[in-house]
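Obj: model holo form, ligand = magnesium ion.
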Amino acid sequence: MSDYEIIDPRFRELVLPNAPLERLADGFRWTEGPVWFGDHRCLLFSDLPNDRLMRWSEATGVSVFRAPSGFANGSTRDREGRLVTCLHGPRALLRTEPDGRLAALAERRAGRRLNSPNDVVCKSDGSLWFSDPIYGLQADYEGGRREPELPPALCRLDPATGAVDVVADDFVGPNGLCFSPDESRLYVAETGLKFDPGSRRCIRVFDVAEDGHTLRNGRDFYKVSPGDADGIRCDEDGNVWASAGDGVHCIGPDGTLLGRIRVPCVVQNLCFGDRLASRLFLCASQSLYAIWVNRRGAQWP
Ligand code: MG
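Output (holo structure tokens):
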């Protein structure tokens, strides 16, 4: 049990006492953006400052999937299973077609260039919701120092029309995001100003209006400490699993910290994958970790 810290008794059923934290690979510069491909039994993830997308499978280990990657950050799969990736370099959302062709889905909003799309999720209606903070414009390390043309925002892309709408504009640094299993809620990590540790940092939650594309009643949900909740994911019961400076925090739908998975380095992002989506993959500092848990990742309703 040494990899867990149970804070609320509910956490006991969510973890497995005989499932260790495993370090699957290391030697990266800074891992991000994990996404599971069950049909290929592999995980794709970003090695962001090294400007490459990586592939991991149990059978073959680690290989380079695409380099250069356009300084890829977060990724997801759309309803047709296609890879959709946030790019800091060209400041775009990119879709990879099954035949390998690349299609830029969004490069602008309000007639101006996006900042540096950070993370993305797909809703069951096919819309792509992504965060557009300025982090990737603040350091050559993450894609190149440039002037932002727009304030940070949380956005929704309709791939059918290409329209990009701002769904929330009161973020300093919108980051990871995930829907609750029934899509009645959207959780979004606010990670503040890059060079100001005192700026606002917390996971926020919004109610999704009945129209399916408007957010209401934004409020603070949970403050991760130490560190930030960069990437977040919901499980099938609506618990929120959040990356943190000391590992992974699991938070109940009521905002209570249920427990922690201890990881010996900062975790940036995570996703559910492998058999029945019940293994958590962790992009953590220079490494890739995984741990089997007793809940499955949230699926589309
Ligand atoms: Mg992020």
